[in-house]
Automatic annotation (TrEMBL):
Residues in Nudix hydrolase domain copies: 186-342
Subunit and interaction comment: Monomer. Interacts with GLOD4.
The EC number(s) this enzyme carries: 3.6.1.13
Function: Hydrolyzes ADP-ribose (ADPR) to AMP and ribose 5'-phosphate.
Residues of the signal peptide: 1-26
Organism of provenance: Synaphobranchus kaupii
SUPFAM superfamilies attached to this UniProt entry: Nudix
Family: Belongs to the Nudix hydrolase family. NudF subfamily.
InterPro entries the UniProt entry points to: NUDIX_hydrolase-like_dom_sf, NUDIX_hydrolase_dom, NUDT9
Keywords carried by this UniProt record: Signal
Cross-referenced Pfam families: NUDIX, NUDT9_N
Protein name: ADP-ribose pyrophosphatase, mitochondrial
Catalytic activity: ADP-D-ribose + H2O = D-ribose 5-phosphate + AMP + 2 H(+)
Amino acid sequence: MVQVRNWAGPIRITLILLGFRHSVYSVGTRHHFSCPLAWCISATKASETAGDSAHSHCTSISSLSTMPSVAHVKARCPQYPGSETRRFPVPDDKLKWETKWADYKPVNYTAPSVLKKPSWADPDIGSFSPHFNSLDGSVDRRSHLGTYGVDQGKPLNPCGRTGLNGRGLLGRWGPNLAADPIVTRWKRDSAGQRVLNARSELPVLQFISIKRKDCGEWAIPGGMVDPGEVVSLTLQREFSEEALNSLKASPKEKEKLQERITRLFKSPGLQVYKGYVDDPRNTDNSWMETVAVNFHDETGDSVSELPLQAGDDAGHVCWIDIDSAVSLYASHSQFLKTTTKERHAHW
């Protein structure tokens, strides 16, 4: 029996019990961005033997060939999002913490919204003593990449320097764990036949995308994993909130749509990524990690009929054709690229 190393407890158990397929590997993609390019070496490995009886429900894990490692590019963007704060420039050869750099002077920044101490944010270091690299009460401070460093009581970004310390817009010190549900369907013509891309001659997938209010970029409708929450619930909760809240439907109609969504999310999902996210909100001490799972409506009888139209500005949610030319938030393009490869679809 096979299991993925370094899974967070509740995430691992949920995915196993639900029978998710996994394709776990480090991914890398070159972004059109103003920061220099560097790569973060992910600690995610292939697999190891499991003896736990709870894993008897787990099917074999399909592991794709190793890809270039995770990009650490947007995490070094010159200006921190939502602020006038500019990062200390970090060249590629000074990225790793192991590289001595006496002149490194990162800018300290934590957003005012985080300093107001909302329920989803940690207090400042010094006012509490978090247990890093472990399950700290209901807050999971373990990284999908393995053990990360801690210096002077503060966690260190496992992908290296970012030019900014503190938490920025992120609530947790260390890894901020998220879940990204990739809901797809086949693009079909008026006769119900799959539409093929003229260039690749492969069928075109569509996914439900939201337009982020903070930066205006299109993205997968994901969200943060609440303390003590298993990832399957996060996936369905975030998708339901983003999709249903955008629809002009009666409560009864929304109830029927929710039943379809629940049915889809009970189907086997395809995990396309687990690890570090190259996110512009990342800092030296706080960073985003995610589990991205594809839920595909193969026959078109569940969520495919959600009344969303491409370009519909109502709620900023719509079906979008998956194509390499589409510009998306953070590492979301890579997640979709993996999805198309697994579904033998156009990219």
